[in-house]
Amino acid sequence: MTRSCTELRYIKLEWCPSYRMREHECRRDAAVSREGIDFAMAPPIQDYRITDFTTRIHMRPALLVPGIGNSGPAHWQSLWQAKHPDVGRVVQRDWDNPVCDEWVGALDHAVEQAAVPPILAAHSLGCLAVAHWAARSDRSCFAILLVAVPDPEGAAFPSAATGFAKVPSALRKYRVTVVSSSDDPYATTPYTEERVAAWDAEHIRLGRRGHINAESGLGEWPEGWAIVNRWRNE
């Protein structure tokens, strides 16, 4: 994954009569530097020409970590990826029979490919994969968004998923935001609050939103993207 970027248009003042300033070079006696123009020493403003050009500002990449079965086209993760070209996704070999070690390995490989430590935005079982990755890997991420963290000891936890129990109690002091629903079938409120306290996380409660997936009526979920986008711009 390459680091993402967005375009910004701005102007450059170019001194015309005696010297031509290139984009990355200027003459010392022109009193012009890459940082700008020293108007106390520079010639009158009418001796300058405005040149319009484009540069690029780099933004931090985001890496989506879906849960069991992957996230379908109507899921907020898929909608984010479709809308923002600088958002990637961890791809698992087997989405329907998750093995924790294998999922953690795929996540670690994806983080390794990022040009800079990425933001991790996980849903459901992907949250547990991120927690185990944070406890094992020497690689780093910038911040973590965990949405609908499931209880691996809960009655509704999928039997096809193996090795995710004994959830790590710490996430290496990462910046973590947990988003929960009061009627999530895969996690009770006490369990979620226990995870939030153990991970020293920010906690955002959405009320009755089920498992915070495509069936929750969130669409692109702009409030969730605002969390990621704030981190991307830091």
Structure overview:
β7, α3 and β8 form a beta-alpha-beta unit. With 234 residues, this protein is of the alpha/beta class. The chain folds into 2 domains: 4-58, no CATH class; 60-232, Alpha/Beta hydrolase fold, catalytic domain (Rossmann fold, 3-Layer(aba) Sandwich), CATH 3.40.50.1820. It is 24% helix and 23% strand. The chain contains 5 helices and 10 strands, in the order βββββαβαβαββαβα. It has a 6-stranded parallel sheet with strand order 6-5-7-8-9-10, sandwiched between helices. Strands 1-4 form a two-stranded antiparallel ribbon. It has a two-stranded antiparallel ribbon with strand order 2-3.
CATH architecture of the largest domain: 3-Layer(aba) Sandwich
End-to-end gap: 19 Å
Q: How many domain units?
A: 2
Shape: globular
Q: Provide the structure class.
A: alpha/beta
Q: What Rg, in angstroms, do the CA atoms define?
A: 24 Å
Biggest β-sheet description: 6 strands, parallel
Name the helix and strand elements from N-terminus to C-terminus, one letter apiece: EEEEEHEHEHEEHEH
Key features of this structure:
234 residues; alpha/beta; Rossmann fold; 24% helix; globular; disordered N terminus
Summarize the structure.
The chain has 234 residues and is α/β, with parallel strands linked by helices.
What topology emerges from the helices and strands here?
Elements (H helix, E strand, L loop, with lengths): L3 E12 L16 E2 L2 E2 L10 E12 L2 E4 L10 H8 L3 E3 L10 H14 L5 E5 L1 H12 L6 E5 L28 E5 L8 H10 L3 E4 L16 H11 L2
Parallel strand pairs: 5-6, 5-7, 7-8, 8-9, 9-10
Antiparallel strand pairs: 1-4, 2-3
